[in-house]
Write a structure and sequence with these properties.
By secondary structure, this protein is mainly alpha-helical. Helix content is about 85%, strand content about 0%. Helix 1 (about 1-15) packs antiparallel against helix 2 (about 20-50). It is elongated, with a radius of gyration of 14 Å. The relative contact order is 0.15.
């Protein structure tokens, strides 16, 4: 799941360079950072249960 999120976000980040609306770009980057942080936390929680 983590790899899928990272791959999708890389695709979005590549395309952000062609968007002229800087407010939209900044907002999306912020939202993506929050989602990445959440995904990282869930990954660590899962690994904590697996790596007893």
């Amino acid at each position: 799941a983590r790899a899928a999120v990272r791959g999708a976000f890389l695709n979005v980040k590549i395309n952000l360079g062609s968007i002229k609306d800087q407010t939209f770009v900044d907002d999306l980057k912020g939202k993506m950072a929050a989602i990445e942080k959440e995904v990282d936390g869930k990954e660590q929680a899962l690994l904590g249960k697996v790596n007893l």
